[in-house]
Amino acid sequence: MASGDVWILGIHMTKFGKRPDDDIIDLAAEAAMAALKDAGVTMADIGVLAAGNLMNAQAGIGQQLQKQIGQTGIPVYNVANACATGATALRTAIMAVKAGETDFGLAVGVEKLSGAGLLTGGSRKADADEWTPSGRYGAVAGVDGRIGTEIMPGVFAQVGMEYSHKYGGADFELFARISEKNHSHSTLNPLAAYTKKMSLEEIMGDIMIAYPNTRPMCSANCDGAAAAVVVSDAKLQTLDPDQRRRAIKVSASVLTSDPWQEACQVLPDVNTLTRMAATQAYEQAGVSPEDLDLVELHDCFATAELVHYDNLMLCPEGEAVPFFESGATWRDGSTPVNVSGGLESKGHPIAATGIANIWEVCHHLRGEAGDRQIEGAKVGLAHVIGLGSACGVHILEKAA
Amino acid sequence: MSNDTEPAELEQANRVIPFVDYLALEPEPHLVANECTSCGARFFDRRNACASCFATEFTKVPVSTEGELRSFTIVAFAAPGIPVPFVAGIIDCDGTSVRGNVINVEPDAEHVQLGMKVRLTTVPIGEDTAGTEAVNFAFEPLEGAA
Known about the structure:
The complex is a heterodimer of chains A (400) and B (146). Chain A is of the alpha/beta class. Chain A has helices at residues 24-39, 61-69, 85-98, 152-167, 172-186, 200-205, 233-236, 241-246, 272-285, 302-311, 320-325, 342-345, 350-365, and strands at 6-13, 48-52, 76-79, 104-111, 208-211, 213-214, 224-232, 248-257, 294-296, 379-386, 390-398. Chain A has a 9-stranded mixed β-sheet with strand order 3-2-4-7-1-8-11-10-9, with helices on both faces. Chain A has a two-stranded antiparallel ribbon with strand order 5-6. Chain B is built from 1 helix and 10 strands, in the order αββββββββββ. Chain B has a domain at 2-20 and 64-141: CATH 2.40.50. Strand 5 (208-211) of chain A pairs antiparallel with strand 6 of chain B, so a sheet runs across the interface.
C-alpha cells in the first residue's frame, strides 16, 4: 500500500572549495547528473526541477542547467531564500511530488563564493555631498558601523552573546571549542573545503572578525553544489530492490519564516522560527530529539551552533552550554552534530548548503560515509537558516 | 568648495538634522518609536501595517534613554571606511530593544560587559556641503560616563 511519503532516491554533493575552472552551471550539472545517476533515473523521468542560487538569483539557473543536461519542457522553479535556498529548492520538489504532479523531482543548489569576503556590510556607500534622508528609517547616510553592525559575523556574534546573557556560561573559549570540534570533524570529510584540525589556541589566536568570532569560527566562503532526486512512495515500490534499499525517507520537510517578536527589528531572531520548524518536524516525523543519530545544523558561525542545540531541542531549554560541555555533540557523543565539519570547515556555498547537509545525513543513513560513518545511524536531522528569515528542517530516516 | 557656496546655502549653515528619522534631538535627544495603537508593538521604520497584529494605526512614543546591554559584538573587520574596532550592541531600553553602537568604553571584552547599564548619547557625523550637520545616536556606560 503506497503512502504519501516522499523519498530521496539519489543525492550528490560536489567537492567544496575553490573551483576556478568550473562555472556555476558546471557545478550544478556535476551535482545534478551525479544525483540522477545515484538515483538510477534520467532527465526523461524528472517531472519538476527546483534550482537554488542566491548570488545570481535572476539568472534562471534552472533553465541554464536544463540547456546543459536535458531540456524536457518540465516546470522549473528558480528559488532564492537566503541561506535556506537549498532546503527551499528541495522542499519545492517534495511539494510537487506530494501534490501528485509528478513521481520524480530534482532539486539543485549551487553557489560560486570563493573569495567573496563579507557578504553584507562588505562595502558601505560613500556619504553623499548632502545629507538626504532616505529609506524606511530616513537615514541620511549608510548605517553599518554607525548604528550597530550589519556584517554576518557580527550579527551572529550578537545572537550567541544574547544567549550567554540569558543563560550564562558561554564565553569566547566555549564558542571557540565548538569550532575546535567542527574543525576536528572535518579531517574525516574529503569533500570539505578545509580539513585541517585546529587547536583551541590556534582558533582563539586567529584573526578576530567580530568578537567572539575569529576567522576559523566563521563559515568558509567557497564554491560547490549539491543535488537530490526525490520520488513518490508509490513509484519507489515499482523500482528495483537496490534503489529501494538505498532510498531515504523524508519523514519531515518543514519551512518557516520568523514570527513577529519584540526585538526582531533590531536583531534577527533566529531562535523562534527554528524552534517552530523543529517542533513541526518532530511532530510530522513522529520522532523525538533523543531518536536522532546525527544532526547537521547551520553553524554559519560558532556562536550560532550553540543556540541551535537549544532551538532544535537537542537539550533542555537554557542548557546548551552544559550539553556541549558534556561532549554530546562530538562525533562519539550522544547526539553527534556536524560530523561533516560544518559550515566552518566544510564550507558554505550558500544555496548548496541546504542540500549538502541532507546529503551528509543520507550518506550516514545509507552506511556509506566511510571513515566518518556514524555506526548504525537510522534517523538524522538537517537544519538551515537564512536571515530575513527562513528556516528549513528535514528529518530523514533509513528504509525500514 | 566653501568658496563656491551660494548665499542661500550659507543661511542654512549650522542647521542640525538627526541621522535617522527615529532620533529626536529636542528637547533632549531621545528615540521615537511607531507604536501600534492596537497591540503596542513598536517599530522604528515607516510602517504599512503592524507586523504583529496587522492593524494600521500607529502613534509616536518616546523610548527610554536608559537601558541594559543585552548583547554585543566588537567588530574588528568591516567595510573600508568604517573605523574599527567598534562595539555594536543590542540595548533593552525598558522593554524596547534598540540597536546601536556603544561608545566611551574601551572596545574590549574586559570593559564591555553583558548586562551593563547604558544611556543614550549623541555623536556628530559631520557636515555636508551645505553646512548641515548630521547627529547620530549611540549609547555609553552609565557608570563612569563623562
